[in-house]
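Recall the central idea of this unit: under ordinary conditions, the amino acid sequence of a chain determines the structure it adopts. In this exercise we apply that idea directly, starting from the sequence alone.
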Amino acid sequence: MINWTAQEIVLDLKYTWKISRNATDQKKNLIVRISDGTFEGSGEAAPNIRYQETPEQLLLQVELFINAIRGRELSFEVLKEVFNQHGIAYALRFGIESAWVHFEAKRKRISVPGFLNIPSAESIQTSYTVPIMETSLIRNFYAENKLSRFPFVKLKINADEGYEMTKYLASFCNQKIMIDANEAFSDPDHCIYFLEKIKKLPVELIEQPMPAGKDEEGKYLKKYCPFPLFADEAITHNADFGLLTEQFDGVNVKLMKAGAIKMEFDC
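Accordingly, the structure predicted from this sequence is:
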């Protein structure tokens, strides 16, 4: 017999996680598990208030999901049907699908990439993110977390202190800097002024400076941005990629907000 369970976990953060729209010292996520008594798979769901997701909402939706799939043989198609029918939050879709994929891979005694029929990753370049903080604290944060071991450093900024933070980090950081504004700029001309001030600094890219949905402003901004522009908050399961190509040069896809592991976009 196959059983599904979900448990809320409380994560006390090592430091305050501050971005342009909020700050927190604690996260509440869900661990979703599926087991047949021999094999078990688990997945994590991290609700995001930016998309009106809460741990309480996700726990209720777990019960909806369990009742909806009772007695059914699961597949990607069945999961998608149930997710859409019951309006399951995207963070929870990922947690459920991840648990099921790991469970099935274990039962079939194959790797997760093998089950998904995708290549195994050999090595992946990654970055470490510096949250918004007082500019004078950035050097100590960089040293304490040994950020020199990463090929890139991502810097969270807001519209007011973004230039000073970027300039200061660049004064001692030898890596390329990725700027993540998290929709901090409401006025494209204000953003262009910021970009002009940092255009001689070692910046690799700019991530989501304007709010998602400000399409005309995004098109205007792209004409004058000296760096590659990447979409983040604008990339959801219902993203219009034709429209986004007029505003961005690349995308940051997060499975918990884009609709789980096996996504189907209408491009």
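Residues 232 and 252 are 5 Å apart (CA to CA).
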